[in-house]
Amino acid sequence: MRKICLLVIIAGLLMSAPVFAADTIKIGEIATITGDFAAFGDAEVQAIKLAVKEINEKGGVLGKKLEVIMYDCRTRNEDMVNAARRLTKQDKVTAVIGPSGSGLCIAAASVFNDAKVPHIGTLPTNPSVTVDEKGKVRPYNFRICFIDPYQGTILSLFATHDLKAKKAAILYDVSSDYSQGLREYFVKDYKALGGKIVADEGHRADDVDFRAQLTKIKQAQPDVLVLPTMGKCLPLAIKQAREMGLMIPIIGGDGFGDYMWEVAGNEAMKNTFWASHLDKADPALQKFFADYKKLSGTECKEFMNAVMAYDSVYWVKDAIERAKSTDPVKVRNALEKTSGLKLMHSPLTMDAVHNPKGKTGVLVEAKDGEFVYFKKITPKQ
């Protein structure tokens, strides 16, 4: 989208050829179809297809069909900004959903606010997605997931109470808003609980060799290694840590995914634990997973992205219906007033800074090629 935007239309699913009448409701989607987060983007695209199909088959919204206009931001901030501009100014959408990356959502935040079009991030957990540098809420930016301070508390509680870890080492991505934010809040809460940070090493997103940092970490003799990051560097760091004899528990945030198994291998992934927004084995999600497979022809691997994207469509649908309008400003107002909305994965209530209130976090364990439920943790708010 720097020079040529990849435009994919995902509406009027399973309908006949001239699917777009003038009398449709346009919503936008920005996804990471290419780049390091491509697996996340594909899951979101398939989930939104499914939600739109279901809604349209039941009569649409306010008697109109949903039409989704999607752009690939290629996991690049400049392409994210260009996609946001095109959706709000040219395509005139009512709302925009995705992607999951905090840095991407922050990069385009001002575009949505200037255009007065609401934007919902699927899994961007950095607080700055919805709050500016002065601590003021960004009026048109929302998220459906909990935030890094929440994840940081979940991980610090798990490290101290469950793992009995008195010393922690951190390896984080200095170029990532997500990684920096999660590191910051883990350190704060872990120290407050009596833990000690014995190593705090940085890397960049395109690094592939972490042995220098891991050597320092090993020498510090931590009880737990914290990897608050995502993308290809995550399984590479795990693999190299195990090769160097670091067999201590490894913990991290919601950047984990099925893509990690192929890179790190089953043995390296053992004794690793990850903060999740939901439990894949939750009975409430099983029909969705079956329908996702039927529509896409594939298993729903990056399930957090898929579920959050799917429920985001239903959140927008609910807001449009409560607003009795497709006007973006009125829809924004309805999104902000969301309270007790029953979505597939969780009830949803917005707080004053456009974050969900009172969500329960889940710890999953990597075991035999899968991420399996370990325990739930609900930090005090």
SSE inventory with pairings:
Layout: E1 7-9, E2 24-31, H1 38-57, E3 65-72, H2 77-90, E4 96-97, H3 102-115, E5 119-121, E6 141-143, H4 148-162, E7 167-173, H5 177-192, E8 196-203, H6 211-220, E9 224-226, H7 233-243, E10 250-252, H8 259-264, H9 266-269, E11 272-276, H10 286-296, H11 303-323, H12 328-336, E12 341-342, E13 347-348, E14 361-367, E15 370-377
Parallel strand pairs: 2-3, 2-4, 4-5, 5-6, 7-8, 7-9, 9-10, 10-11
Antiparallel strand pairs: 1-3, 11-14, 12-13, 14-15
Helix pairs in contact: 1-10, 1-11, 2-3, 4-5, 11-12
Order of secondary-structure elements: EEHEHEHEEHEHEHEHEHHEHHHEEEE
- Poorly predicted runs are 1-21
CATH architecture of the largest domain: 3-Layer(aba) Sandwich
What's the N-to-C terminus distance?
40 Å
- Domains counted in the coordinates: how many? 2
Largest sheet: 7 strands, mixed
Structural class by helix and strand composition: alpha/beta
What shape does the CA trace take? globular
Rg from C-alpha positions? 20 Å
* Total beta strands: 15
What's the arrangement of strands in the largest beta sheet? 8-7-9-10-11-14-15
